[in-house]
Amino acid sequence: MLFVWFVEENPSVAFSSEVVMMKSMPQYIVRYGIMRLLGIFASPDDAIYPRGTRLILRTSRGQETGVLLSEVTERNRAMLPDNLEEDRIIRVMTTEDDRENKRIRKNESDEFARCKAIIKRFGLAKEMNLVRIEHIFGGERIIVYYVSDGRVDFRELVKALAAEFQTRIEMRQIGVRDETKLLTDFGDCGIECCCNSHLAAMPPVSMKMAKMQKATLDPTKISGRCGRLKCCLRYEYDTYHEFADQLPGIGRQVITPDGPGRVHSHEILQMKLWVDLRDQQKLYDAADVQLAPGEPLTEQNGNDVADDL
């Protein structure tokens, strides 16, 4: 009741008071929404929740369901983006909430069909490919996810959809990686696609990463379900890059225990070098090889430059 009084008398004071209250409450990292968004949510009344607890949240989009991942710590907060949603937990999901959530998810297939029919009626079926719709738990809005090569004028479409579903409509254009995140299940490795399990954002991946890790350059083998380079090519790239920076670049003149030679290639994780000698090619530990006087450490011919895909 005290908080309500603040709202009526001085909204700015109420807002600042609410922020202070939220900062002092236990905070948790929660995953929510079909795009598997991450947010930091304060616990009401200092309640403590275990990992995996299903919750009803207040977000900028309305009331949503989510799954608790962990309590916020200084370490895991530093690993997360600065622009995460921050709000509060409303309650733990009840049996009634779970029943309502299942009803909403079940009805989404019918809403998808109705949405697709309206898009066709407006002659936009060739301009935009409807991927999925998301009906927010609290009913505040429906989010329409679509793929399109360019901009689409959907002003009249939004009015028709709002009239059809009697709620706010949000159009969200996505790329092929996000489309895969919404529609696919397993990768060719036999486990769930990373984008559909733990990735909150799609990291940029380039052919340079595949080359450095000596992965096959066959596009059919290093491309994921989305047709783009696999996200997992990035996971070990930073380690490869860190180790590679400690090795003489390909093409550099070096001094080996068997005499002078030129670096032919790297075995990066083993910290070894293949070196072309006068009459043979030989593998050396990096610690046993020194750069020839006057030779810089970096590569001579810029082999590590590649376009991002």
Beta-strand residue percentage:
25-35%
What overall geometry do the principal axes of the alpha carbons give?
Answer: elongated
Which sheet architecture does the biggest sheet show? 5 strands, mixed, barrel
* Helical content class: 25-40%
The total beta strand count reads 13
Radius of gyration based on Cα positions? 27 Å
What structural category do the secondary elements indicate?
alpha+beta
Query: Count of helices?
Result: 9
Q: How would you state the average pLDDT, rounded?
A: 84
Q: Supply the number of structural domains.
A: 4
User: Order of strands side by side in the largest beta sheet?
Assistant: 1-2-5-3-4
The unreliable regions are 1-21, 300-309
Query: What are the secondary-structure elements, in order, as H or E?
Result: HHEEEEHEHEEHEHHHHEEEEE
Instruction: Calculate the terminal CA-CA distance, rounded to whole Å.
Output: 55 Å
